[in-house]
Write a structure and sequence with these properties.
- It is built from 5 helices and 7 strands.
- The chain is an alpha/beta fold.
């Protein structure tokens, strides 16, 4: 069953515009929030994750977990940053990702389409596309609640109206 409830495309003409989206999503995040990031190499998945973490209150430097697979940080909520690019579906399944997805924190998974079958039914998918040296187009699809509400608010108000949800 497809429980996709909403989608939206965000045109970020600069890193600052990307940061506005990251700040908006971080403000709405709650325990169990899962963001599934995808896009070409160098599209900005890690940069988005860093901005998101900053607005979640993470004070540490957030860098790519490519070789460590999962990094945990403290912020307003625990922040779990994953990179599953180098994993098979079976290897990812053995990591016990459900403990993160359904735990007390917020999870961002880079290259999430590689483990689509393991993601929770409620997730916010973000596909980052490079459109210029500093510009990004983000195709955002929300599956389940609260993500449909988030996208409905974004469609109405853009990233400036995120306090209103």
């Amino acid at each position: 069953m497809d429980n996709t409830l909403a989608d939206w495309v965000y045109e970020a003409e600069s890193l600052e515009a990307t940061e506005r989206l990251a700040a908006c999503l971080a403000a709405w995040s709650q325990p169990g929030t899962v963001l599934a990031l995808d896009g070409d190499l160098g599209a900005g998945k890690t940069a988005f994750s860093q901005l998101f973490a900053r607005h979640l209150g993470v004070l540490e430097t957030v860098n790519s977990p490519t070789f460590t697979l999962i990094k945990e940080y403290e912020g307003r909520l625990p922040f779990y940053h994953m990179d599953v690019y180098r994993l098979s579906l079976d290897e990812a399944d053995e990591l016990g990702l459900d403990e993160y997805f359904y735990g007390p924190g917020v999870t961002v998974v880079e290259w999430a389409s590689l483990i689509e079958e393991l993601l929770p039914p409620e997730v916010l998918h973000i596909y980052v596309e490079t459109v210029s040296e500093t510009g990004r187009r983000m195709h955002i699809k929300g599956q389940g609640e609260p993500y449909a509400s988030w996208l409905s608010s974004l469609k109405r108000n853009g990233v400036q109206g995120y306090e209103s949800i």
